[in-house]
Amino acid sequence: MDGLTLIDAAILAASGLLAGAFNAVAGGGTFFTFSALVATGLPPIVANATSAVAVTPGNLASTYAYRREIAENLTRFRALAIVSLAGGLIGAVILTRIDNASFRVLVPWLLLVATLLFAFSPVIVRMAAGLRGGEHGEPSTLMWAVGLLIQFLTSIYGGFFGAGMGIVMLAALAITEGDDYHRINAAKNLCSTLLQGVAIILFIWAGLVRWPQTLIVGVAAIVGGYYGVGIGRKVPPAVMRGFIVTVGLALSAYFFVQG
Q1: Is residue 1 part of a domain?
Q2: Average model confidence (pLDDT) across the chain
Q3: Would you tell me the crossing angle of helices 100-119 and 121-130 to the nearest 10 degrees?
Q4: What is the per-residue DSSP string for 12-74?
């Protein structure tokens, strides 16, 4: 199967299970899938594109789960959706124009930044929410514009790489959507699906996706996502975040050494 050994397939399946479980609860699944795809022989850019496609079914499922909240706030989410589509397309175009050697140099830095975002995510989201000038009121026009700008830049990053994207997106949405948990999550899932959707269309068109690996990781991610919700109810979020940060730092160090 495209040169894959049974060991390769097992590594990819394990990464998909972990990615699905962690994405369902705390995020950070890209750490596992991207690293496993590189470890089993894919060039970094191809691994990144393949990882993005593989986790898409899980993102679609999450978005569908919030279909009622999305329908109720569709007008409110319109501007967020537009900047997410535009940013995702720009990020994907940048990825298709860069070579593997240059991207490999960026990988450890991207992983390190994403890891730090996870580590300080509660502080980041609280600071962003404080910019509203009130927990329950609507943001000022300036703060709304700031939130949209952060979302746009986050979407560019998401189309280009994506690890840790959800944390920055939560910060942007804490500015525009306040403290409504379900509305924030609905917006996050919608925007993530849109920006990654336009990105993977470009990745597929550019021939960057390896389908056997996508199938293995994708199916495993669905299984991991299903059971991850139950696990997440028993494990404190701080423990989940701590594990992701530890993995992220280890992977960052590994890619710095390898680079």
Answers
A1: no
A2: 85
A3: 70
A4: HHHHHHHHHHHHHHT--HHHHHHHHHHHTT--HHHHHHHHHHHTHHHHHHHHHHTHHHHHHTH
Domain assignment present for 169: yes
Rounded distance between C-alpha atoms, residue 67 and residue 213, angstroms: 30
pTM for the whole structure: 0.84
Could you give the CA distance from residue 106 to residue 98 in angstroms, rounded to a whole number?
11
**Number of domains observed in the structure of the chain:** 1
Tell me, yes or no, whether 36 lies in a domain. Answer: yes
Exposure on the CB side of residue 16, measured as CA atoms within 13 A = 27
Q: Give me the mean pLDDT over the 167-178 stretch.
A: 77
Domain that holds residue 11: 6-258
CA–CA separation, 182 and 205 (whole Å): 34
List the one residue out of 3, 48, 77 whose CA is nearest residue 206: 48
- Considering only residues 21 and 154, tell me which one the structure prediction assigns the higher pLDDT: 154
First to last CA, the chain: 29
Residue 152 CA to residue 85 CA, distance in Å, equals 9
